[in-house]
Amino acid sequence: MTPDHASTLTAEVCALAPVIPVLVVKDAAHAAPLARALVAGGLPALEVTLRTPAALDVIREMATVEGGVVGAGTLLTPADVERAKEAGASFGVSPGATPLLLEAAEANDLPLLPGAASATEAMALLERGYRVQKFFPAEAAGGASFLKSLASPLPQIRFCPTGGIGADNAPDYLALPNVACVGGSWVATGAMVEAGDWDGITALAAAAAKLPR
Ligand code: 3PG
């Protein structure tokens, strides 16, 4: 898959809702109810981070939930890309971007949202054809004001900022012309998932789904 085609597909994922929940799930038994809770709240695009031993099983389970579009996050290596694809991920997300990772995503037809945190990193990805990128770590790397500064010189790039974003500052990012959607863990924290607080997660998702952009 070309980076240009991947960008078209990741833009479609971002268009589904203003927020992509970033999920760290320890128990595959939580996968289906969690996905149902988020989809019910109006957030269909889900990022399952490959940070737990259960993550690939979680992706497999969530991929069966109607209305969900499940991606794999924290992709660091070509092997991660292959495992994510095999588990049924529809898209991938990485905190950064290396030549090997990009090659693997392109060779395995996994639409990738690669990470950038500077003008040079964003330009290198654009040069390769990635028009949609993750901005990570959003708050620590300069926040909404930094991203706003990139909009004039790099209007071709749209970002999904992630890292340190919550209900309080998400609107600052979503108001920017170069933000397609934001990612964050606040709609389904580890504690809420562990507690099986599906109603609470649906309520937070519903509020996030209503954020203007
Ligand atoms: C991550 O990869 O952990 C995401 O950037 C989510 O960050 P957050 O937990 O600060 O929302």
What descriptors fit this protein?
213 residues; alpha/beta; TIM Barrel; six-stranded parallel beta sheet; three-stranded parallel beta sheet; 10 helices; 44% helix; 15% strand; binds 3-phosphoglyceric acid
Describe the 3D structure:
This protein is α/β, with parallel strands linked by helices and 213 residues long. The protein has a single domain, classed as TIM Barrel. It is 44% helix and 15% strand. The strands form 2 sheets. A 6-stranded parallel β-sheet has the order 5-4-3-2-1-9, sandwiched between helices. Strands 6-7-8 form a 3-stranded parallel β-sheet. Helix 4 packs parallel to helix 5. The longest helix is centred in the N-terminal third of the chain and has 13 residues. The mean pLDDT is 98.
Side-by-side strand order of the widest sheet: 5-4-3-2-1-9
The count of DSSP E runs of length 2 or more, i.e. the number of strands, is 9
Backbone shape: globular
* Chain-averaged pLDDT: 98
Total helix count?
Answer: 10
- Which CATH architecture is right? Alpha-Beta Barrel
Rounded to an integer, what's the Rg over CA atoms?
Answer: 16 Å
**Uncertain stretches of 5 or more adjacent residues:** none
Task: Give the name of the CATH superfamily.
Answer: Aldolase class I
Largest sheet: 6 strands, parallel
